[in-house]
Structures are given as C-alpha cells and as structure tokens.
C-alpha cells in the first residue's frame, strides 16, 4: 500500500506526483508508472470476483487519497504499532494488514 515497489524502483522514499496549478488529474513519471502497473496487477488476481482491469483514470481521486493516506504520520504510526515494515516485501507478506491500516487511517473521525 505504500507504493513501495515503485518508490524502491525510483529510489524515492515518497511516491511523487503533480497536478496542474488550476486543478485537474494527477500526472508525472511515478503516476504514469502506477497507472500502467495497476491494470496488470488487477488482471493477475485469481478470484471469482476479479472483473479484469478497470480504467485507472476513473479512480484517480481515490488512488490519490490512498497515496496521501499512506504518506500520513497517522498511517506510519499505525504501521509501526502493527509491526509493518516499509518495503514492498512487507506489503507482499502482509497485504491484509496493510489494507486494514489504510482503512483505519481513512476512516472518518
């Protein structure tokens, strides 16, 4: 959930993207890599519920919200409490726990 694989590949500790000054959809090299990788990852899900790749652009604001959540101090503190590391290996080994941490952090207060 921390965009760990892309961050590791780009040697960045933070997932970076930009927006036009007058608003609009996110863009940038890391965003383009994410939008290319998500449909491929979704197509590999082997469950009866998998419907195949969806358009990432239709869900851009939700993805941005999740990325912002993953960058928050609250999320990082919760990950520490749950003994979750920051690498893509940690995410791969504990995907349900990361989803739980994201949902707790995004929950309205």
Keywords:
54% helix, 109 residues, mainly alpha
Summarize the topology.
Elements: H1 4-9, H2 29-43, H3 60-70, H4 73-81, H5 88-93, H6 95-106
Helix pairs in contact: 4-6
Compact description:
With 109 residues, the protein is mainly alpha-helical. The chain has one domain (4-106). The chain is 54% helix and 0% strand.
Number of strands: 0
The number of distinct structural domains comes to: 1
What order do the helices and strands follow? HHHHHH
Q: Mean pLDDT, rounded to whole units?
A: 83
Separation, N- and C-terminal Cα atoms: 21 Å
Beta fraction: under 5%
Main sheet attributes: strand count, strand direction, barrel closure: none
State the share of residues found in helices, binned by percent: 40-55%
Gross morphology is globular
pLDDT < 50 runs, ≥5 residues = none
Radius of gyration computed on alpha carbons:
14 Å
Multimerization state = single chain
Helical segment count: 6
> Could you say which structural class the secondary elements and strand pairing correspond to?
mainly alpha
């Amino acid at each position: 959930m921390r965009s760990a694989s892309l961050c590791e590949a780009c040697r960045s500790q933070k997932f970076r993207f930009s927006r036009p000054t007058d608003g609009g959809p996110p863009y940038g090299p890391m965003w383009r890599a994410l939008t290319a990788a998500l449909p491929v990852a979704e197509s590999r899900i082997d469950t009866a519920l998998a419907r195949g790749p969806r358009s990432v652009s239709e869900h851009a604001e939700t993805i941005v919200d999740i990325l912002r959540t993953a960058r928050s101090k609250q999320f990082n503190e919760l990950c520490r409490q749950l003994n979750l590391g920051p690498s893509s290996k940690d995410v791969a080994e504990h995907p349900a726990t990361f989803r739980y941490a994201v949902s707790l952090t995004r929950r309205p207060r």
